TrEMBL record:
SUPFAM superfamilies: PLP-dependent transferases (SSF53383). Its cofactor is pyridoxal 5'-phosphate. Keywords: Amino-acid biosynthesis, Aminotransferase, Histidine biosynthesis, Pyridoxal phosphate, Transferase. This is Histidinol-phosphate aminotransferase. InterPro entries: Aminotransferase_I/II_large (IPR004839), HisP_aminotrans (IPR005861), HistidinolP_aminotransfase (IPR050106), PyrdxlP-dep_Trfase (IPR015424), PyrdxlP-dep_Trfase_major (IPR015421), PyrdxlP-dep_Trfase_small (IPR015422). HAMAP family: HisC_aminotrans_2. CDD domains: AAT_like.
Length: 366
């Protein structure tokens, strides 16, 4: 008997593996595996979420109008050129969907964000991987992969899972040297963790260049990961193409209102950035002090640290031992990152506990 057959390219997709929050035995773990905000979300966003329960029987505003206007006011953008998505994940998928298909090539960097691979393959495109430069984005390696079939380049800046950052000059050079037919997606999921003079100029490029899409999210510094709210900014033509295929009611009313409140919660964002900078520095020093055990920290511009295990204890072993001690971090062999663990910066207690667990694991190993 014949059965429905998925497209070959769909079956070629390795399913996304989310960060763990409980062990195989169901035991609750300290979750430092998904780059969430350890401080939660702002009181303003919580109040908005509670108030939104009054509107559950009505469809949300399909155009996320007020939210787009508030984003535009905050970043000095044109609201008509903003698209809101079910997380920035949706905006990334919409970009791949609108601008690539079978026979087309989509470039991203080795150790890039896992969703780029899924988005590329989902529409029948061919992923093309550009080599990294000591875990960072290598603009020349990307440019070397561009050809007539290239349709999209995905870059996260700062990058996940490496935490590395490419300068404004490097990003501008990439845009300038890419052919006009290639859509450059600059994913700024962690942009709010940058200090002011680290701005990579992405929004400015999207303002003036016809082939740049910037994506941002409310899941990270705003602490609204469960609500699934992201946005993109690009030319009117790019946004129009993506709007034609996005689901009409893709951001919930609660999500729109929580995001609106979050945008105004500057104190919470500043406190989150400060907390992150302090404990990232602390964890980085703790891990660097374990350099005699082969630990190497990749300098991070995000709310997580990538720690390489180049000594006797492998990343896989350290990951298993951390799980035993109740800590979930992220080992990413599926992304080719066999020798590293990505550790989200948690609360003070969580971060101190993680460092202690790591010290014990390495000491036990001799
Ligand atoms: N881009 C990058 C680089 C990310 O790390 C993430 C979250 N892991 C996303 C996009 C997607 O975030 P969201 O869909 O929650 O907006």
């Amino acid at each position: 008997m014949s059965t429905p057959k998925p497209k070959d390219w769909i079956m070629g997709i390795a399913p996304y593996v989310p960060g763990k929050s409980s062990g195989d035995d169901g035991k609750k773990l300290v979750k430092l595996s998904a780059n969430e905000n350890p401080l939660g979300c702002s009181p303003e966003a919580t109040a908005a979420l509670n108030a939104a329960s009054a509107f559950v029987d009505r469809y949300p505003d399909p155009g996320s109008t007020k939210l787009r206007e508030a984003i535009a006011a905050k970043y000095d953008l044109d609201p008509a050129r903003i698209i809101c998505g079910t997380g920035s994940d949706e905006v990334l998928h919409l970009a791949a969907n609108a601008f690539s298909g079978p026979g087309d090539e989509i470039i991203y960097v080795r150790y890039g964000f896992a969703v780029y691979d899924i988005a590329a393959r989902r529409y029948g495109g061919t992923p093309v991987i550009a080599d990294d430069k000591d875990y960072g984005t290598d603009v020349d390696a990307i440019l070397a992969k561009v050809n007539d079939q290239t349709r999209v380049v995905f870059i996260a800046n700062p990058n996940n899972p490496t935490g590395t950052f490419s300068s404004r000059e490097e990003i501008a050079r990439l845009q300038a040297e890419l052919p006009g037919h290639v859509l450059l997606v600059l994913d700024g999921a962690y942009a709010e963790y940058l200090v002011a003079d680290e701005d990579d100029g992405a929004l400015g490029l999207a303002e003036t260049k016809a082939n740049v899409l910037v994506t941002r999210t409310f899941s990270k510094i705003h602490g609204l990961a469960a609500e699934r709210i992201g946005w993109g900014y690009a030319s009117a033509e790019i946004i129009d193409a993506m709007n034609r295929i996005r689901l009409p009611f893709n951001v919930t009313t609660a999500g729109q209102q929580a995001a609106l409140a979050a945008l105004a919660a500057d104190d919470f964002v500043a406190a989150s950035r400060k907390h992150n900078a302090k404990w990232r520095q602390w964890l980085s020093e703790e891990c660097s002090a374990l350099g005699n055990h082969g630990l190497r920290v990749i300098p991070s511009h995000t709310n997580f640290l990538l720690v390489l295990f180049e000594g006797e204890v492998t990343a896989e072993q350290a990951n298993a031992a951390l799980l035993d001690k109740g800590y979930a971090v992220r080992w990413l062999p599926g992304q080719g990152l066999v020798n590293g663990l990505r550790m989200t910066i948690g609360t003070e207690l969580e971060t101190r506990g993680l460092a202690k667990a790591l010290r014990e694991i390495l000491a036990d190993a001799g």
